[in-house]
Task: inverse folding
């Protein structure tokens, strides 16, 4: 199965999520590629739109090896690698601070005039265009779970079965359009998988007007 574009996949996901139309769900895109998809889904469901910002914590000398993740509020969790590698508390503290700065710069760029929309008590749908290992989606779901949503849903176009299984342990519901046994890269399942720029994300989010203030 191949999708014509992110827009095509988003339309199919919106159909699968139709039961939430009129229930004021909160749709969160994982930047950058999933944000245009999240916009299409939010419009179809009459939902609010925002982004969920998380960033992995890299291992010493191996920044691509995730030892955990941090959210934009500074809340972090550590994975098994942190313990297995015997990473020092000083390094973890410095890595958290560095990645938190990255996230705060992104939030300032994406929604400079408002805070993130509060997911507490809401049906929250986290959107990604595709998932390989699941690390980013799992980090996002864990971050959001701590904010006590009423229901937490992962919606993705494509992911391998093993990854979907791991995500099911983190979400209340997982919607994945295609679960291929052979999986090399997300882009192979899209005819058009053009990169999404920060400018496109900003333009989409500027159209969003939150209905609730944070803390409600």
Result:
């Amino acid at each position: 199965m191949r999708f014509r574009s992110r827009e095509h996949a988003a339309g199919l996901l919106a159909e699968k999520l139709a039961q939430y139309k009129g229930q004021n769900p909160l749709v969160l895109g994982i930047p950058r590629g999933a944000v245009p998809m999240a916009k299409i889904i939010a419009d179809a469901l009459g939902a609010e739109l925002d982004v969920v910002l998380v960033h992995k914590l890299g291992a010493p000398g191996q920044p691509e090896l995730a030892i955990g993740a941090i959210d934009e509020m500074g809340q972090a969790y550590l994975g098994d690698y942190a313990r297995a590698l015997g990473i020092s508390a000083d390094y973890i503290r410095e890595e958290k601070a560095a990645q938190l700065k990255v996230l705060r710069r992104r939030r300032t760029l994406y929604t400079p005039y408002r805070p993130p929309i509060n997911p507490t008590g809401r049906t929250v749908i986290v959107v990604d265009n595709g998932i390989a290992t699941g690390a980013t989606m799992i980090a996002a779901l864990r971050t959001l779970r701590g904010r006590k949503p009423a229901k937490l849903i992962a919606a993705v176009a494509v992911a391998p079965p093993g990854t979907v299984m791991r995500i099911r342990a983190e979400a209340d519901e997982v919607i994945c359009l295609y679960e291929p046994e052979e999986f090399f890269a997300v882009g192979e399942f899209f005819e058009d998988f053009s990169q999404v720029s920060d400018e496109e994300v900003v333009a989409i989010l500027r159209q969003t007007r939150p209905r609730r203030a944070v803390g409600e």
In short: Residues 89-110 form the longest helix (22 residues).
